[in-house]
Amino acid sequence: MTTIFTLEMQYEQDVVQARQRTREIAEQLGFDAQDQARLATAVSEIARNAFQYAKGGTVEFSVAGEPQEFLIQIQDRGRGIPHLEDVLAGRYTSNTGMGLGIMGSRKLMDFFEMESLPGEGTTVVMSKRLSKRTPNFTDSQLQQIRESVIERSPQNPYEEIQRQNQELLRAMAELRKREEELTQLNRELEDTNRGVVALYAELDEKADSLQKANELKTRFLSNMSHEFRTPLNSILSLSRMLLARMDGDLSVEQEKQVTFIQKAASALSELVNDLLDLAKVEAGKIEVRPSSFEVSDLFATLRGMLRPLLVQGSSVTLIVEEPDGVGQIYSDEGKIAQILRNFISNALKFTEQGEVRVTAVQMGHTVIFSVSDTGIGIAPADVERIFEDFVQIESSLQKQVKGTGLGLPLSRKLTELLGGSVSVTSQLAQGSTFTASIPIIYPYATEFPIRLQPIASLEPARLPILAVEDHPETLFIYEKHLQESTYQLIATRTLAQARLALQQLQPAAIMLDIMLEGQNGWTFLREIKGDETTCNIPVLVITIIDNEKQALALGANGFLIKPVDRLQLLNKLNTLINQNKPQKILLIDDDPAYRYLVKQLLINTQLSIVEAMNGWEGLNLAQQEQPNAIVLDLEMPELSGFDVLKQLKSNSVTESIPVIIYSSAQLDADTQSQLAKKSIAILSKETGSQKAAMSDDKPSGFGGSQSTGTAKTATPSPLRAYAQLQDALLKAGLVLDPCGQSHV
């Protein structure tokens, strides 16, 4: 800090001199006229208070800090200010205006600090940063400013008053100018607001017209569909009677004519039904009725319903595969059946020979329904067009099979209504695959289905976790969090259900909500910890109120506050269940670059890593070391990862070890589905260079640039690779961090 000038205040005119000196120094330090006025005003207010209440004091002007600041310290030896806190908080009212002067000065400065002690006086330190455009002053430059201020004699007080008046006039002129600009801006805003209001009114009018037109269209289609159906049903019934010879025999020509009538009526009836369904979906009138049902039961119904569509002696086979591994789903069964019927009937129409195959596979929280055929296929340019209303692609079979062009658009809209999506892959002359991805649980349901897991359906390879939670939404979230992990959720909504479950199984851990409606979770916690058969089961209290101390005092092993993140929950469960036991990973990969990369990604964890450079060595180490998880590459010489995985799962010693697939192999849907049944996660290696993985960036393993290369394996983005690996390891039951946080 360099002191420029010190002023002793003994007389009233010294207050004016303090203002003058402030302005002079501020001008030489490069402050503009506006900042000079602010500084002078703030100093004069505080100096006036010092002279008025303490009969004098000192004003010291300095330059300090980096970046440099103009620092002013005003000190007096008066009685002090007993109500300083009220003054600084703006609560103090003074007849002399002292509080207003201090608060005003504080607002004019960048820094303001005031200290007052009874009987010892008051010290005020305030500063303002020098302009960024002004270079830092050297010691010699500050010395020159100091000398010029000392040499310059103080101005006449009347000149200072005149200058203050001029500043006041300039400020008033500037204020008047801004007031005029604000008035003009308000006028422009009023004009704009009027225009916006008029535009909104017009948009509302258009929206009302469109809504009325849409309602009119829907009402028309609904009414006309009903009017169409009555005569159409009559025509169909009468034609069947005539063809059945109920009123006498028909000539060959008459039979042909009645057959034409029947076919035309059937086609028209199909069109009316599709139009009505489509109109209801577009108008939002269609109602989703979710319920729990088995996919296998749905497929059994489809088999019986759709076999009559096959022409007698047809060379096309309809295959409805048993949905292996797909259990109950909670959605609208009728609408899913309608979607699949449309896909299947469409496939049968355009397949002359071969097969139409219907499958269902569960991928995470979604069931993938697929209908594949060996038909004529669809050109790439027409893939999106087929989902437009009334569009029918020209083909050799189109003349033979008539349709409405509404089945596929309706299927897409119904799938989206259920929270899913439709996709199609096709090749000309080879066939097509239509896929509907439907969430296992209808996402817009107001009530969630909670399946109280029967003990008989427990999976031996997964550890049961008992959840005591009365909110179905929260149980649904827990089920999603633990899905595909080494844990299986046993959901209970009452303490009675929880006690019954504990009589039938020994869970690996208990997740307990304390705030149960009409029940006392604290009592249940004491009960668990006081019983010899259950006292060793880790209890994780998860509730909305932060009462961790009480929970731990009553014996809880862990505590979390809702809402709970998936990774946080998994890591907490892993920590409680493993009880700080040493954990080991077996890494089977023939590429040293990738073994190095995985070790670097996990360098900050407590995991012990065992390496195997080929499949045979990996199988031997898996039996000897009994690791907590195995990270396996698929593409290895001699013994591939597929064979290693098969042998691991066929060996009673290693079958229960969670396996994480970590490979650059391109896998089709069937292969992924098969691997998913035997592994806990499938991670993909991205394109990159081995050199980046072998870079010297340590210790976290997140350095190194990516580049394109031709090596067999690759270096993924480190952050993404760590996130994927972290997620997989947590699902496998390993502890990465006691706090549940990543090390990125």
List the helices and strands and how they pair.
Layout: E1 2-9, H1 13-28, H2 33-54, E2 57-64, E3 69-76, H3 84-89, H4 98-108, E4 111-117, E5 121-129, H5 139-151, H6 157-243, H7 252-282, E6 291-294, H8 295-306, E7 316-320, E8 328-331, H9 333-349, E9 354-363, E10 366-373, H10 407-417, E11 421-427, E12 431-439, E13 463-468, H11 472-482, E14 487-492, H12 495-504, E15 509-512, H13 521-530, E16 539-543, H14 548-553, E17 558-561, H15 566-578, E18 584-588, H16 592-601, E19 608-612, H17 615-625, E20 629-632, H18 641-650, E21 659-663, H19 669-678, E22 681-684, H20 690-693, H21 718-731
Parallel strand pairs: 7-9, 13-14, 13-15, 15-16, 16-17, 18-19, 18-20, 20-21, 21-22
Antiparallel strand pairs: 1-2, 2-3, 3-5, 4-5, 6-8, 9-10, 10-12, 11-12
Helix pairs in contact: 1-2, 2-4, 6-7, 7-10, 9-10, 17-18
Task: Provide structural commentary.
By secondary structure, this protein is of the alpha/beta class. Helix content is 45%, strand content 18%. It is built from 21 helices and 22 strands. Helix 14 links the parallel strand 16 and strand 17 (558-561). Mean pLDDT is 79; it is low at 450-454, 687-716 and 738-744.
| Overall geometry | elongated
Helical proportion? Answer: 40-55%
Question: Which regions contain 5 or more consecutive residues with pLDDT less than 50?
Answer: 450-454, 687-716, 738-744
Query: By helix and strand content, what is the structural category?
Result: alpha/beta
Return Rg in Å: 41 Å
CATH hierarchy: architecture of the largest domain: 2-Layer Sandwich
How many E strands?
Answer: 22
- CATH class category label of the largest domain: Alpha Beta
Sheet with most strands: strand arrangement: 1-2-3-5-4
Relevant CATH superfamily of the largest domain: Histidine kinase-like ATPase, C-terminal domain
